[in-house]
Amino acid sequence: MARIKEWNPEDEVFWEKEGKRHARRNLWISVPTLMLAFIVWQIWSVVAVRLNDIGFQFTAEQLFTLAAMPGLVGASLRFIYTFAVGKFGGRNWVVFSTGVLAIPAIGIGFAVQNPDTPYSVMLLLAALCGLGGGNFSSALANISFFYPKKEKGTALGINGGLGNMGVSVVQFVTPLVITIGTFAFIGGEGQVLPDGSQIWLQNAAFVWVLPIIIMTIVAYFGMDNLPTAKQSVKDQFVIVKRKHTWIMTILYVATFGSFIGYAAAFPLLLKSQFPEYVSLAFLGAFLAAAFRPAGGWLSDKFGGALVTTVVLIVMGLGAFSVIFFIGQQAFLGFLISFLILFIAAGMGSGSTFQMIPIIFPVKEAAPVLGFTAAFAAYGSFFIPKLFGWSVSTTGTPITALYYFIGFYVISIALNWYYYQRKNAEVKC
Length: 428
Description:
The chain has helices spanning about 10-40, 45-50, 60-90, 90-100, 100-110, 120-130, 130-145, 150-175, 185, 205, 210-220, 235, 245-275, 280-300, 305-330, 330-360, 360-375, 380-395, 400-420; strands spanning about 190, 200.
């Protein structure tokens, strides 16, 4: 692959003649690598559900912690990954950050086969899955350099949305692949369930090892390092002094933080409230990821601030609706309300990311994208933990949902004041 020496996507002639071709190639390689990262990151949201069925004896709070731990580590790693593209180059970092995903995938595959595996080991493997959580910040920062401002919302929406789809993929594929002994030759007998049937829970992890290896190779030969992306960490770190960095962080926590947190907690929530429907857990993450590009596209057309306000209002109403139907123990209403909440969170993830390149200059926009994503990723830790606390202390997740509604109200006010009202500091 020839090395790119110059890059200026804002030049229409350059963009049409050469830039668009390179940008699209890097985008469509970035999407599956990011999807695999999300798969590894969220694998515990489905593995944790089945552990006690195959002989482990963990408490409900321990299981919620296993589902939450990758979020804590992944969010923390995002602060490092945010600045990695500028330091090491986009292609170089994608190759490294994709390849290391094989480590937790292989480890989990062996650990779940032995019910005597200590909880500390399972917690370590859950933490290693946080490696997948870091990739989002670097992937979005990298792709943002490739596209002109007028197309950033759509491009980031596609990369983020289809990448986020990894959450629903792992939640949909896992129940299917664990029913067959495909990887028994590696060293895995099936586990017997209480009803006498057999599953191979190790498949939930082993099935992703080959795709990880393939996409690492594809990224090495197919992606590019851009000369314009090179920045020192010191130059990038100036973003922490910007007021709007922190405001946009709050808005992205409210949207993407909700999406990834609900996705991590939803399977366990279903099992605690409506256990016979736990197989439908993948629907929430699927719809959130699918609608993320729509949020970016609508924001390109109508303005990110307006779209963000609308989705935050819908999220608040959706959470109230979930509370109502939990009280009624009405599954269909609960499911539809939660799916609306997921859709709105997905669209809001796209709309807020469309706003950032409008608010910040190009050199600052990329690290801001990663920085806000880092904070938002803590949602995948705190939301399952808050649900776990709420269920263990009150017997219901309702208390946690009231906290989320309060946060949405604060976010609506900030978005309106700084970006949407007539005399806003930055109209988006």
